[in-house]
Request: fold
Amino acid sequence: MHNRGLNHKNIFHDQRYYAEFLKCLREVSDQFEAVIHAYCLMTNHYHLLIETPKANLGRIMRHANGVYTQRYNLLNKSDGPIFNGRYKSVLVDEDAYLLQLTRYIHLNPIETKPPMVNTLEDYEWSSYPAYVNREKCPN
Reply:
């Protein structure tokens, strides 16, 4: 699934914003038993690959987007919505598509023009470094 900033505006401005969103992901993992298989946080959007054993995706995303919006507004000294509507989601029911989607999510930082990093291992706001054992996998 993914969501984009309102009018393509940035939703992550510096490390504080990225860290707050990752905190939201930890919270949904703990509170709603979501399993986050992959993520990539870009400056104006994010991609997530989430498993929802309790079929509670709506509650998960309401928390992630809603709480992040509140934290964003506190950090940015602003108010109002930051996302361009509802998140977009796709049901993944085949292993082959799961692999393809994980690859797509992780390739985002080098498929921008110009690329954000030279190698995927260098992009710290993605789960890719944990996939290749460069970093410890978050709980």
